[in-house]
Write a structure and sequence with these properties.
alpha+beta, Bifunctional nuclease domain, 34% helix, 5 helices, seven-stranded mixed β-sheet
Length: 161
């Protein structure tokens, strides 16, 4: 479900006098990225993707499953008919709780990329420290922003130079 569809769906649960606003601002130390390319290794076992900023800077991510890469590619192409059980679980819990994913923020946790998932609705909830690949898949499925810290993004860009 796209962000505006989610927003319209949740509005029906709110009191008419509620001032419902989802904070989508990005702070000065953050950057919004989009999936530019997605694929797998030659065996289809390891996923790879490139996140890109509006100004063309790139951030590669690898070392996640080829299965998740295939789901992300399918979601990006509009395929919504078959989703992994765990993503379906999140969708059902969100709908029952009247919560909607509004953004995903990727961060570095030592030797792995992790992510926080931000939900909004009757309450605001942050699910912390999940695999970045799953968070990117959910962000793609729901069409919500993917955010990173500028420091992390620029650190990776320097390593590629």
């Amino acid at each position: 479900m796209k962000f505006m569809d989610q927003l319209n769906k949740i509005k029906k649960y709110l009191h008419p006098n509620d001032d419902f606003k989802i904070k989508q601002e990005i702070s000065n130390d953050e950057i919004q990225v989009k999936i530019d390319q997605i694929g797998t290794d030659s065996f289809g076992l390891q996923g790879v993707l490139i996140l890109k900023t509006d100004d063309g800077k790139e951030f590669p991510i690898s070392a996640f499953s080829g299965e998740v890469a295939r789901y992300i590619a399918g979601f990006r192409d509009g395929q919504r008919d078959a989703i992994p059980t765990i993503y379906n679980l999140i969708e059902q819990l969100s709908e029952e709780s009247e919560l909607f994913l509004v953004k995903v923020k990727i961060f570095d946790n030592g030797n792995a990329l992790r992510a926080n998932l931000y939900f909004s609705g009757r309450k605001n909830i942050v699910l912390r420290n999940f695999r970045a690949s799953d968070a990117i898949a959910l962000a793609t499925y729901y069409g919500v922003p993917i955010i990173m810290s500028k420091t992390l993004f620029e650190q990776q860009a320097k390593e590629l130079s």
